[in-house]
Amino acid sequence: MMKRILAMGMGLCLGATAVWAGGPGTTNANFLKAGQGVRPISMGETYIALGDGLDTLYWNPAGLNQLSSPTATFMHSFWFQDIGTEYLAYGMPLGPLGALGGGVTFLHTGTIEQTMEDQYGNYAGTNGTASASSVALIGTYGQKLSRLLLVDSPFLKDVLLGASLRVVSETIADKNVFGGGVDVGGIWRQTEEVKPREISAAGGGVSGGDGKYAVRDRGWRAGFVAQNLGTTTDSLMPINFRAGAGYVEQDLFSPFGRGTVTADLLIPIDNDVKISLGAEYAHISENTEFAARLGYKIGPEIKDLDTTAGFTAGVGIAIQAALIRYQVDYAFVPYGELGTTHRASLTLAFLPNENPVRPVEVAPKIVAPLKTEPLPRPRFLPHRPN
Q1: Number of domains observed in the structure of the chain
Q2: Most buried one in 69, 144, 149, 251, CB count within 10 A?
């Protein structure tokens, strides 16, 4: 089954790329090629088949339906020079209606020296400075295929679909470009039902559940997505086609361990194919979680750099306090002689109150009305003669 799903996804990617194929420099809004989400980036940018957190807004909209509680995240990317990226997102499950989310990405570059050229195209000095920035807004909806088709099928319950609408704006000096596009994706996953008390409150890939049993990931996964299907006022959006596969193993090395391995294939319309590999091991206890991650990328952006480029690494720590789960993640991404980049994020999951405190019901005091009794009649004693 998984082989058929992967083959179909890769066939769609290759066929669509042949229609839109261009070359480097033929698309706009290329800041969208920089992935968002610390966990996926530290795993080599492999998240198409996984998509089990809020970071799936960027990678695969189908994964949004795996959210088990309202979640918010903020990420900052430390790039080269004065370049930085801010990313803010929020998502929430809607029960039988699916899941809804949205986010904003802001790229800022500081000041840039403007260069001049003569009539022959030769360098002719500078002319002050300019600034550049890019903004992207995204709205996402995800749902199970079984609910879309109104069919109660165990297989269709594990097929997730999603779509996103993205609007972008780029400004460089006095030049502006606007555009928009859509993402469409799907995920197939293997799951198992477990009793809620047998799983950690800190995570473990748990989603859904009916109170008696909860669902968590275990086994194979596959996914595909078409990203940025749209255009700008100047050229096409950076259209990508991605396919991925992964495997999740629960209770690895201990009852609290979870292992994940993933692999993604990226086919852009304006560059060469990229292959990414990733792995994660997480130790999950009742109120805490620690995760270590590794990844490796093989693609055009690193082929001319030294051997350290392509490797990624990161860690994550989560702590649950009261009804909020606090998660901090960090990713380390070297680019050889260009330097090293860093990502850091804070994620808050607002957990449901499973044992709500009900107000104490106080019975109203009933005050009986005063009863008025008639005065006793005077008693007349018989008269006794003297």
Answers
A1: 1
A2: 144
